[in-house]
Structure formats: structure tokens, C-alpha cells
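CATEGORY: protein folding

GOAL: derive C-alpha cells
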Amino acid sequence: MSTSRRLAVVAVGAGALGTAALVRGFRTRDPRLLGPLLAWQRRSMNPRNLRTAGQPGAPWAVVRHTGRVSGRAYATPVGATRVPDGFAVMLPYGPGTDWVRNILAAGRAELELDGRRYAVTAGPDDVVPAGTVSARAGVGDLLAMRVLGVREALLLRVEG
């Protein structure tokens, strides 16, 4: 076997192992994986996604919330699914992330989706099992939920 073929086999194997470790980390909520992954997402992915999130046709919504300790204004890109009285946001990292804790502490936030802004509310009872809102999720979301073992969703209820 040539060197380039061996390298290709090693690269494919490493990719498969990395994917398996990622899935296992999400399913078990292993902080050794999720901590660095969440930090990378905040530093690299969120700023990119925020460039278009919330705009018409964008795949991401923006949730605007206030820091429970700092009082600072934050914007976090999320995947929001329409439900009868508002929106559901799947929580692959669980309900302990800062943005979720900020919204639950304040009881309110603003969600921007497809160019429209919504005043939304949420309380501790609005963290629900993901299966209760999965019927409205798209095929890609359902696959990700199943593979990654997403267990919770946050219901954001539209005010008014």
C-alpha cells in the first residue's frame, strides 16, 4: 500500500473515531468534550452565524438576552422551531448553558426569526423533554436529536 493510501486510511479512521467521540460526548454530556466544544462554538461559530441569523431565509434565529450577573446584552444564534404558542429550541448542551440560564433568570428575551422580532417569555417549567416538541422538528433536527441524544428543549412563548 502506498504512503498516500495509508495516510488516507488513517485520516478516515481518525475522522470516524473523532465523530464517535463527539457523539459519545454529547450523549453522556461529558464536560471534557462539551466544555472545549462550547468554547469553540462561542468563539468561532457564533460570530459567523450571527452575521445572518434572524434575517429572512437564514437557518438560524437570534435570541437576545441579558446576562444575569453582568447585566450585559447578549445575542446567541439558535435553531428555533415554531410551536403553537411560540418557539421551541433544542438544547444539545442541556439547560445549563449561560444563554438558557440568563433567559430563565430574567423570564424573558427577544427572538428574531425570518426578519421578525418576537418578545418571548420562559420559566423553569418551559424546559421540557425534547420528545414533546420533536413532532414539529425538521428531518435534520430529528436526526441530530436522535444521534446526539438531545434530551431537552426550551419553549419560548410569544408575549401577547
